Amino acid sequence: MQRLIFIILLLGTLFGFSQNNTPTYTWRMHLPYNSVRQIIEADQKLFVLSDIGIYEFGLKSGEAEFLTKVNGFSESNVVAMGYSNEYNTLVIAYKSGDIDLLKGNTIINLPGIKRSNIFGSKDIYEIQIHNEYAYLSTAFGIVVVDIKAEEIIDDYQNLGLGGVPIAVNSLAIFNDDIYIGTTEGIKYAPAFDNNVNLKNFSSWETVNQYDSAVNITTFNNKLYFVSDSVLFSNDGNNYVPVELGVKKGYKSLTVCHGKLVVCRFEGIAVINELGDMEEYGEVAMSSAILDFQNNLWFGGFYRGLMKKDESGQISFFTPQGPFASTTYDMEGQGNSLWVTSGGFTPAFAPTYNSYGYYRYEDGNWYNRNTSDPYAGGMTDFTALYVPKDRNETWLGSFGSGLLRLENYMPTQRYTNSNSTLKNSVGTNEVALGMAYDSKNNLWVSNFETDRPLAVMRANGSWNDFNVGTKRLGEMIVDESDQIWMLVPRTSGNGILVAKELQNGSLRTRFLGTSQNGGGLPSNNVKAIVQDKDGEIWVGTESGIAVFYNPGLVFDGGVNADAQQIIIDDGKDIGYLLGSEVVNDIKIDGGNRKWVATNNGAWLIKKDGSEVVLHLTEDNSPLPSNTINCVGIIPNTGEVFFGTTNGIASFRSDATEATDFHDNTLIFPNPVHPDYEGPITITGLPEDATVKIADVAGRVVYELVAVGGTAVWNGLNFDGQKPQTGVYLIFSTNKEDEDSLVSKLLIVR
Description:
1% helix; single chain; 748 residues; globular
């Protein structure tokens, strides 16, 4: 059992930080909160379970606070929750079987189920609170948590006929018996009789006809449940259908202040203590409750949290977040980050994902406008391309063509009706890669067509080319206008390089794994990027390789091949990430490489000689080890990770830079006595030299910027904290042509 203190930091107000100046090396979670799966009222607040995470909503303040790994919670993928009013404790269950107890501001972790050797699924379906106990309905039986003692005290497994494993879908305590819903029917047994062995299947009686019982709840001396889409009640003797036994889409049954709130697809109803039912309307909701002021709170799939007061007035609340948790690609632009929701199946078929794309800027998320005439009807957004020095963004898709945005607004959609893009086999226009060359020609990969390389000229006209394969994916254009394209689903090659000649024809070369033929670690290439030195880094299912001489690619030979980097980490000598599936690579302001893999995220030194960081779900707030993509906001250095369980971000220590000072900023400033974090200087020239001195001119520390940012640990050369006073920050560019003196106040 692990205990942590739960602290919610409102970073926008901490020491006056703005969203752009959050402390370096801090994390943030960016989860979608526009769906509602469960609502619990607890002491002037609501706990709301969304698609993945939980947030706390203040009934008086109207503000939300997020319960995430950043705050010390164990995981991100929450599947159920329950609340004990007696012990002021929220019980949280995760997909893995892990459990957290939130008692006031203290988090207690109970990892027993997660660490157990239970064979098969450890899914937790539901949590019911009775006195000091939390009863968990799970895929393998029942688990009992003692909330007061903060421990798992019992479990009941193999309750099926003959002692076979069976899932418990729901449960409740009624008349001192425990009732459980299983595929064999409703089973019940004495809950508190020490002479009854609840671990023995033969101790349980079974009512066979209710073999799909869920939402088991006790209210007004009756047991309520749903079976085969019919609501039933039991007074201890007879099972009686409610609502005339009509089948309906029941979602939840919740007891609230002496009433039973019935949430069903057809609308919300409330049963009072006399058994009378009142309809409240509001169709297609997933969860509903009545609060202490008799306000109805409800929500559903992508409907947000809603409130209907006694006068019938409805108000809406949805916390900031991306529209969905799915991600395919990420690209930074100025102070923004673009994200596409993806994508296609492993067999390269459309998924008809309608979540669109999301853009993050200054703490806010902006989601695709579904009524937009260009973007509104598009599905399966995939590749992102953000050209430098243009107010443009290009979004590819798997079956909806190509979208152009200017100043964040969609301005054109390209399909087979206004371009040379053609329909792919089994779907519409697929665009998996885009890039401009130096002549302002936009090249586009039109996957699975006879002429898959398309180009929109600077004058708006289109051409296309047969390049010897139908399958082209992600692309880049290097400094020599050579087009490097991934060749997905092709066993013999991993990359195609093309260059347009003066006569308008193409010169092409396929690259594979053979020596003198490309030198790739694998032909399953998943990522490609050009760094600030002009080198081309390639991510494959067998690690990373680098084309150090891309200008020689058409000459062939060993010097034109990709090279794998050999590193020695003190334990082993081997190829850089040689055993990792690399899904994405992005370059930060210091020319370092951020790498997304199926085993977490990696930060690689700019020359690949060292792994600087390896971030996983175990040593960081990452919600999953499977990282689909990574993106970096250029002006802030904040790194975003798109995982299978949502998006997280990390304020890194490198930003994009020019050769001169540009809006140089020091934060925090002043440094308060209780601040223990780093001091960050942004807006510096690239790789600037920075010296910190007291007013007498004595240098207390010196460092070199990474890109346009320098991060000082706040200690002097002797490892001590400097005394209270004003300190001068001297910074100069590499050529000593541009210098600046800034001031920093430290208070001890």
